[in-house]
Design goal:
Order of helices and strands: HEEHEEEHEHEEHEHEEEEH
Helix content: 25-40%
CATH superfamily of the largest domain: Dihydrofolate Reductase, subunit A
Number of domains: 2
Largest sheet: 8 strands, mixed
Bound molecules: NADP nicotinamide-adenine-dinucleotide phosphate
Shape: elongated
Strand content: 25-35%
CATH class of the largest domain: Alpha Beta
Radius of gyration: 21 Å
Oligomer: single chain
Number of strands: 13
Length: 225
């Protein structure tokens, strides 16, 4: 095709990331001018392109939370309980991965420091920057950032770690929930949302708490087919 507004193949096909990277995702072995697409991608260096928000694929988004018997998760900006076993469980699942949190949860972290050995993302409309965090100002902004991270290192998983506002907002996009269920009830002013579309897959009772794993029912159906 050779028209004033569109020429195909693109005249700079072997030099432009916005042409090569989507092509590599579809047909990495396609040979162009004597070399496979994936080799051309390596030769073009660091061109800053990322999928458009509507094309980013942030799945599977996972959630991890610690809930009391009434789905309470926090009081006056703090957690309801600090169980060493739960902290260990949290670290084991999230280390090496990407954690996504709301601004108030970020401010509740010791020293407002990012969690070690994880890529930290904070959602905020008020913060312009935070040392050690990528700041996303909206959900489309978050999808763009996750799309970029996914392309960079597809093996990393994405974890929403709270708080109440973020859990409620991101639940429709979540595919798995890892919930620590405290047997006791506490005074709480922040709650995990109801999650009717999820099915319990496993439960590991540890006395004071139980580690539960839920999967979105529509995904479970697909897995069974
Ligand atoms: N038990 C658990 O597992 C657990 C886990 C995490 C947190 N918590 C508890 O939960 C409580 C905090 O929860 P919370 O609901 O008050 O706050 P939060 O969800 O941590 O943060 C809310 C803030 O996130 C930002 N935000 C939310 N949606 C956004 C969007 N679409 N775009 C841009 N920014 C967005 C806003 O920040 P700006 O105001 O800056 O715009 C908003 O004020 C604390 O008590 C904490 O200890 C418990």
């Amino acid at each position: 095709l050779d028209e004033p507004e569109l020429k195909l193949p693109h005249p700079y096909l072997t030099q432009r990331a916005f042409v090569l990277r989507p092509l590599r995702d579809i047909v990495p072995n396609l040979v162009i001018s004597g070399a496979p697409v994936r080799d051309w991608c390596q030769s073009i260096g660091d061109q800053d392109v990322s999928p458009a928000a509507e094309l980013a694929n942030p799945w599977p988004l996972q959630m991890i939370a610690c809930l009391d018997a009434r789905r309470g998760i926090g009081y006056r900006g703090e957690l309801l309980a600090h169980l060493p076993e739960d902290m260990k469980h949290f670290r084991a699942l999230t280390e090496g991965n990407v954690v996504i949190m709301g601004r108030r949860t970020m401010e509740s972290l010791p020293g407002k420091e990012p969690l070690a050995n994880r890529t930290n993302i904070v959602l905020s409309r008020t913060l312009s920057a935070a040392e050690g965090f990528a700041v996303c100002r909206s959900l489309p902004d978050l999808w763009r950032e996750l799309g970029r991270l996914h392309i960079e290192e597809p093996q990393r998983s994405f974890w929403c770690i709270g708080g109440a506002e973020l859990y409620a907002e991101l639940l429709p996009y979540a595919r798995e929930l890892h919930l620590t269920r405290l047997k006791q009830s506490y005074e709480a002013d922040a709650f995990f949302p109801a999650f009717p579309g999820f099915a319990l897959c496993s439960s590991d009772d540890r006395g004071a708490c139980a580690f539960e794993h839920y999967v979105a029912a529509d995904r479970l159906l697909k897995m069974k087919i």
